[in-house]
Amino acid sequence: MIHKLTMGHFDVQALKNRRLVVLRPLDMGIVTRLLQEVGQVDEHGRATLGGHAVEVKDGYIVCPWLMAQRVLATEEFARRLQQETGCVLYDAGRREIVTLGQMTDW
């Protein structure tokens, strides 16, 4: 099973009810800078982490995370994004909020 990590400023109570509610959009300046530092961004602005496409949504992003192997670039990006913005990390496949500590245990 492929798990994607959804990152943004979400209503935590809504996540518990399996609803994704964006409280405010991510700062795309920070997102873009971190994607350039940790991943790759092509000439068309499409970003990848560990060779896997990053989905930019309306105010949040979705990145490949747990596949046959962990996507370590996604973990580094998520760690830095959360430290700089205080965003929530959410694994919709498992229906749970992910902490930085949990990432290292998988």
Estimated share of beta-strand residues: 25-35%
Largest sheet: 6 strands, antiparallel
Overall pLDDT: 90
Q: How many helices in DSSP terms?
A: 4
Overall strand count:
9
Uncertain parts: none
Your description of this structure?
- With 106 residues, the protein is an alpha+beta fold.
- The protein has one domain (8-105).
- It has 4 helices and 9 strands; from the N terminus they run βαβαβββββαββα.
- It has helices spanning 12-16, 28-38, 72-85, 100-105; strands at residues 3-10, 22-24, 40-41, 47-49, 52-53, 55-56, 61-66, 88-91, 96-97.
- Strands 1, 2, 6, 7, 8 and 9 form a 6-stranded antiparallel sheet that branches. It has a 3-stranded antiparallel sheet with strand order 3-4-5.
- A hairpin with a 4-residue loop joins β6 and β7 (61-66).
- α2 (28-38) runs antiparallel to α3.
- The longest helix has 14 residues, at 72-85.
- The two termini are 14 Å apart.
Explain the layout of strands and helices.
Elements: E1 3-10, H1 12-16, E2 22-24, H2 28-38, E3 40-41, E4 47-49, E5 52-53, E6 55-56, E7 61-66, H3 72-85, E8 88-91, E9 96-97, H4 100-105
Antiparallel strand pairs: 1-2, 1-7, 1-8, 3-4, 4-5, 6-7, 8-9
Quick structural gist:
The protein is of the alpha+beta class and 106 residues long. The chain has 4 helices and 9 strands. Strands 1, 2, 6, 7, 8 and 9 form a 6-stranded antiparallel β-sheet that branches.
Q: What are the main properties of this structure?
A:
single chain, 106 residues, alpha+beta, six-stranded antiparallel β-sheet, three-stranded antiparallel β-sheet, globular
